[in-house]
């Protein structure tokens, strides 16, 4: 059986049986529906009555259970988008009959995804198996479809630029520039009161990014392991809240920043430790057990004031704390931890829920107010993002709903924060509107990597009209897959359909009308429609096609001249 949503009959939308389909299936149908003869659907004769309510059959179709049946692929007409796998193939192939395997992986990396992403495991395994059967290392359409079909949803999202950072290549280049700027920064002192920390070179510097969609980018010494130290505190606090709830945890821990040194012996008026970042040092496990006198002093002071649950074994608690601080990570793995906090507790790489929403919200709130030692107020003012630093040189930075970042460089300032890390975070917020209180609408001088820039929109108009001018249907398929507006206009309000009709490209006109379902009667600045362009230049085949399509076309929402003017003005605003 052959399954595709792209050739559903329009008549099926009016069928009560079809309307009983799940909402997400119906929505997908409406987005991908194409023109076809208005033939009423029937229940497939090859299924039992019990299955009939979930199965449709259309004349001249191969049966597909659960949702729909589609025409056999050999009966598809040219210019129609067959399936998501085919669309993806056309997008990458650029008109070629085969795709080199390295071209596919390179294009994949440009979206921000990695070949080692667990979500793409099936695709990469299929690719390895298929590559052993090919002599030239190229994939034709059939082999490509076999390779990607297990992960087609994720891959389609990536190549349609539906991730949180659409233009990831440009964003990554900006991150590299910020990295190089901070790399040249001098000053700071490597923590030397613990032998393990003092061994790190002051020249080490790394930045790793993981978005909530699993897009990854690294710069510098991101493979070098280091201890989390105090960067582990947000994670253990979040786990405690996730397991025991906010009310119980905050019987023993306050929420207000103290304004005092992080290892100060001090409680608030209610006899609580001020927040979960107070009271413990940042040494590795073995060193702390040998030279952790102050940690033990703080621990016993808290125990005396009954700041722990009854029956707490202080020695075991401190051993656990030392072990947590001694957990080794790399910048790459720590950025996934930060991205999990940015993603509401879901790991962006595996999709698994790690923390509850309440735990994440509380953790980010406390990171924002008191995560950077005595620099917390300044950091909240200038950077405005939740963060946590550690004396190993790490800074765990969270951009909620966007990404997690891990910066690491051993040299510390006098307050115990990474010199290069602070500079990078400050530069990042100066460049991008990630600050909590940046206005996303009016602060035009800042880059918003979550949106495609104006230059990209102008390029898309140029590329679209040029493809229509040259009759490049393959390029138009790629644009359609990337969610490009196929009705966008240039400064003369001319659409791709205007250009294709004027040039007499029948296949382009057919593709725009039948596959993309564009408006067949848009008017340019002189009031001309594509039909009038085709008549003027004597392209009778195009005229006939437009006339046939106009007879059965009904504009959405009853388009009028006022609506046409509104669309034109909106398009001009977009270009500007």
TrEMBL record:
Enzyme's top EC category: hydrolase
Family matches, as SMART domains: ANK
Annotated source species: Oncorhynchus kisutch (Coho salmon)
InterPro entries for this protein: Ankyrin_rpt, Ankyrin_rpt-contain_sf, Beta-lactam/transpept-like, Glutaminase, Glutaminase_EF-hand
Chain spans, region Disordered: 552-576
Keywords, comma-separated and alphabetical: ANK repeat, Hydrolase, Repeat
Any Pfam family the entry gives: Glutaminase
Transmembrane parts of this sequence: none
Protein name: glutaminase
Compositional bias of kind Basic and acidic residues: 560-576
């Amino acid at each position: 059986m052959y399954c595709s949503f792209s050739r559903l009959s329009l008549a099926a939308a009016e069928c009560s049986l079809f309307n009983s389909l799940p909402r997400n299936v119906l929505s997908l149908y409406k987005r991908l529906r194409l023109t076809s003869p208005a033939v009423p659907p029937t229940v497939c004769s090859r299924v039992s009555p019990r299955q009939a309510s979930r199965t449709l059959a259309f004349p001249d179709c191969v049966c597909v259970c659960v949702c729909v049946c589609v025409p056999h692929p050999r009966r598809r007409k040219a210019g129609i988008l067959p399936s998501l796998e085919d669309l993806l193939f056309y997008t990458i192939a650029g008109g070629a009959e085969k795709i080199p395997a390295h071209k596919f992986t390179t294009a994949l990396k440009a979206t921000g995804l990695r070949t080692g992403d667990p979500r793409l495991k099936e695709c990469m395994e299929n690719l390895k198996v298929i590559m052993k059967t090919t002599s030239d290392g190229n994939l034709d359409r059939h082999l490509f479809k076999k390779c990607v079909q297990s992960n087609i949803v994720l891959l389609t999202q990536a190549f349609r630029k539906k991730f949180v950072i659409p233009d990831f290549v440009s964003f990554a280049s900006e991150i590299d520039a910020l990295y190089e700027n901070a790399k040249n920064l001098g000053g700071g002192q490597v923590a030397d009161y613990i032998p393990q920390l003092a061994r790190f070179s002051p020249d080490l510097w790394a930045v790793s990014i993981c978005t909530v969609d699993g897009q990854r980018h690294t710069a510098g010494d991101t493979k070098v392991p280091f201890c989390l130290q105090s960067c582990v505190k947000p994670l253990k606090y979040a786990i405690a809240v996730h397991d025991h709830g906010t009310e119980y945890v905050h019987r023993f821990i306050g929420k207000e920043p103290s304004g005092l040194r992080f290892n100060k012996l001090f409680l608030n008026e209610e006899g609580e430790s001020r927040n979960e970042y107070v009271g413990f040092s940042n040494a590795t496990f073995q060193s702390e057990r040998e030279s952790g006198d102050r940690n033990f002093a703080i621990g016993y002071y808290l125990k005396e004031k009954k700041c722990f649950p009854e029956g707490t074994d202080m020695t075991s608690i401190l051993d656990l704390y030392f072990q947590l601080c001694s957990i080794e990570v790399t910048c790459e793995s720590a950025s996934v931890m930060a991205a999990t906090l940015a993603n509401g507790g879901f790991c962006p790489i595996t999709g698994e829920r790690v923390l509850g929403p309440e735990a994440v919200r509380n953790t980010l709130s406390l990171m924002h107010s008191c995560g950077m030692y005595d620099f917390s107020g300044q950091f909240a003012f200038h950077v405005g993002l939740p963060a946590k630093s550690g004396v190993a040189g790490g800074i765990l930075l969270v951009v909620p709903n966007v990404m997690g970042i891990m910066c690491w460089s051993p040299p510390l300032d006098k307050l115990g924060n990474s010199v290069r890390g602070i500079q990078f975070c400050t530069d990042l917020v100066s460049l991008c509107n990630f600050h909590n209180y940046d206005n996303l609408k009016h602060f035009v001088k800042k880059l918003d990597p979550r949106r495609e820039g104006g230059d990209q929109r102008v390029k898309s108009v140029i590329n679209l009209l040029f493809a229509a001018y040259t009759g490049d249907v393959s390029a138009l398929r790629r644009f359609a897959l990337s969610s490009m507006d196929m009705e966008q206009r240039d400064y003369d309000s001319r659409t791709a359909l205007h250009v294709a009709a004027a040039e007499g490209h029948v296949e382009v006109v057919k593709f725009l009308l039948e596959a993309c379902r564009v408006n067949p009667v848009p008017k340019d600045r002189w009031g001309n429609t594509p039909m009038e362009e085709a008549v003027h230049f004597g392209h009778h085949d195009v005229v006939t096609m437009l006339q046939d399509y106009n007879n059965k076309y009904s504009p959405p929402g009853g388009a009028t001249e006022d609506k046409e003017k509104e669309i034109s003005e909106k398009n001009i605003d977009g270009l500007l």
